[in-house]
Amino acid sequence: MPRKIHFQVVYSSSSDEQYPASELNHHGPLVKGWQSSRFCSYPQELILQFEHAVRLRRVQLLAHQYLIASKIEFFLGDCTSDDSVMLENARYTRLGYIELSSNERTEFKARELKSIHVDAEGMFLKLIIHKNYSNRSNFYNQVSIVAINVLGDDIDKFHENSENQPETTTTRSDQISIIDDLAFAMYQDPEIAAIIKNLDRKKQECVRDEKFDQARKFKQATQELIKVGERLARYEVEKRQAIENEDYDIAQLKKDKMELYRAETYRQLQVLNLLDVVIENGKGTDFLKRLHEIVNNEQHQNEFKQETPHIPKQQNSKRTRNTVQTHRSPESNVSHNGPQTMHESSTSILPGHGNTTRRTSIGVGGNSGGYVSPDFPKPPTPYEDKVVPTLRNRNRTDGGHGHGSVMGSTDIGGINNEETESMYGGTNVASNDDATAGLNQAEMIEANQMMIVFDKQLIGKLYHRNHEEREKALDEIYQILKSFSGDHEDARAYLRAGSFVVARMFRFDVLATFSHSLKLFHLLMNDYVRQHSIQKQDIIASLERVLPVLLQRTGDSNARLRQRAQEAIIESASYPELKPLHVIPHYCVSPFNKTCAPRLAISRCELIEELMKIFDVKAGDNGLNVDNVSKFCAQALEHNAGEVRELAMKIFLNLYKSDGAIVKRYLPPDNDQTRRIKKYRDIFDAFDRMDGITTTDPSETGRKSVGVSETGKRDSQKQQHTAREQQKSVKNYK
Hints:
Elements: E1 3-4, E2 7-12, E3 34-35, E4 44-63, E5 71-78, E6 91-99, E7 113-129, E8 144-154, H1 155-164, H2 182-186, H3 190-208, H4 212-244, H5 248-271, H6 275-278, H7 285-307, H8 313-327, H9 339-345, E9 358-364, E10 367-373, H10 391-397, H11 417-423, H12 441-451, H13 456-462, H14 467-482, H15 488-505, H16 511-531, H17 536-553, H18 559-573, H19 583-588, H20 598-614, H21 626-636, H22 642-659, H23 672-675, H24 678-690, H25 698-733
Antiparallel strand pairs: 1-8, 2-4, 3-8, 4-7, 4-8, 5-6, 5-7, 9-10
Helix pairs in contact: 3-4, 4-5, 12-15, 13-14, 14-15, 14-16, 15-16, 15-17, 16-18, 17-18, 18-20, 20-22, 21-22, 22-24
Pfam families: CEP104-like_TOG, CEP104_N
Region (Disordered): 300-423, 693-734
Organism: Adineta steineri
């Protein structure tokens, strides 16, 4: 059976700084994979070197969801016996190629896993990666490979087996162990994966010893643990995403859920007497340590319950509401309040053991199944565990302090001081009455990003109902940024927070607020980034946060606001710090569908028309080129609104005037059938006039030919009638 072959990436033609080729050397849920550099030349190359010569049997490749190569070729290299094993001495043999899906059907939300069967020997594996598919998410024409897995045999062992069983050398081995599969390595929690590997090894030993009952037990445990590992891996990814977004409430919630789920898993392993397999051969000591901690915590909690007197309900109701509101999130209804939470969130992980009465089900990635779990008694609760919906509004109306709400916290993702004091019997501190108290969780996350550098009261004005307060806050932020003279790291932080401010303020419909936001936007993207020497990556991140909102406002019903948004985009595209980044042209040429709002579609076409005057489309090195503009216009020609089609036709004609017949590649073939459609007939006629070719309307030609044929028919009928009359007159004369 083929096994996983370890390798190292020894060469890559290019790579993004944040996604180096070394990411392919290992597998896991948090692996980012390799990405080519922005606007790289094609084809790209990757070369993998194995630890020693192998008999390659299978290659698994996990593609990116939208940075997708159109084709990948595979070459296997080896060095002759006379040459030393070096990359320069390798000689390659082409194995074949694969074509990847463009992923449009899944709307670029799924990753394609390709499995390629091969049968060859070598030391190096070279991948030739061809040009990417164009889509709305791939702004920089990059390609990416998330993971590569190589399966095969040691060449020495392979030759030994071939000598013992020569008839099997030509057969292809399609069976691989689940622990060597790429899907297992990429979507499994590392600790659970180690347990599964030990269980799989024990299962194979039981099969060899014909202990099939034990083998079945290990198989069932392995199947359930795979689902557990997938869920824990998903929680880990969600926790890392929350940390990157600085949403520490969600991160803490995910961490607690992982600990609860993992604790129940180890408890079930102990119930089924499988823990000895986990810690066998000196492996798994971390698991045993975790289990001891869990048992000690449970004993401590039981002792604490016995010693603690009953607490009246009235005294704990306030604390209960605080704790539940602090940890609640849209993704989970789990509240961490001691033993009750442990019971409610616990799920049977492994097959039942002994007398069990209750059945529960879990689902990972949409799959579910019923599993038996022990019936743990539920401890009594001295309070009512629910959230009063009108608590926040009542406190605000009555002049209360609003305890327990995350919305009033100045510490990102943490519990505020007021809540901590109320939980431990401290003196209540009056909170400031600001507009952030009524924000939902998503808005509070956004506000927290601004409050990293700006004062909370200042950010509260931005969310005020009165637009004059918002404009005053924008003016204050403008003055802060204009006079800022801190170090480089602080400058980056202020740029990031300022981009959140601008993106938020662009959403308001008041023209005065929008104008103040534009003033701040121009300061950030021109003078500020130039004075403080902000790096390109930070500028791109801030611009990509603001630009989609600004583009959406170009389709606003307010004509003055719509015009201001267009002018801002066109002006900022020529800024010296933004022009080399090509971000604005790439966003503008992103195609839209035919059901797009007419105002927005018209504005997009007008933006392209104006940007073509700023950028040299023929050069093609500034984000606008004949290809992407032609694709944009071809899609705009399908729009339902006639004004949009006329603007697209106008851009097409301007392109044809400057770049010639290359534009015709993005139009249907020029024939009579295509010219029956008015929009294409008008375009091709205009092309012909530019080329000095006189054209006639096919419909007019058809009418003329019909008229000629009818005239000829009438003349022939008249001649026949005259001949008959002459014959009659001759007979009468005789």
